[in-house]
Amino acid sequence: MGSMMGEKQKVCLVSCSVLKEEIQQLVKQGSLDADLVFVSKFFHVDYEALENNLRKVLEQTQKRFKGKIVLVYGDLCLGQDDEMKKLAQEYGVVKVDALNCIDCQLGGKGKFVEADPEHNLMFMGPGMVGFFVHAKEEMRRQGFDEEAFRGLFNGIKGFVILDTCGDGEKWADELQKAGTGVEVLEIRKIGLESTKQVVLNAIKRA
Fold it and tell me: Taking the model in full, what pTM does it have?
């Protein structure tokens, strides 16, 4: 009986690597019991590349994994028209109830929108800071100057660092060093609880 229960509960999370630090830490603490598959966050700038890679990963995962598969991606990660929800339906997998990765970190269900009613803040968890530091390198390699990099942040009043894993100061420093031309206004210590709940709720529905 015990082993049957164990079988039924097997879960595999297919997640954007932007949430890698959070999800790995939850598994390490024993808050999550799941196989993990991460898809590179650097596909994020290109919906088509992301979709092609996600399809490949979902197909491979479904072949080798016989438990529940949960997609840890936001509604908006493939575009504004529920493309991500449709993809989840097509593969018969459950998706977390969140608009994007920041929404996951804040507890999902659109809390992201309440957190920034004026749309002029930019929330950054560890994965997002890494994403932009890498983007700067990439742009430099392709011959863009500092000005072009700073242009990515036009209209942003300031950054809010989401300290999920207890190392917010480090990420704030990294971001300042990157030279975005925008100040870090706040380091918000939010911990892992919200990300955990968003993922666990999806696992329950799976």
Answer: 0.91
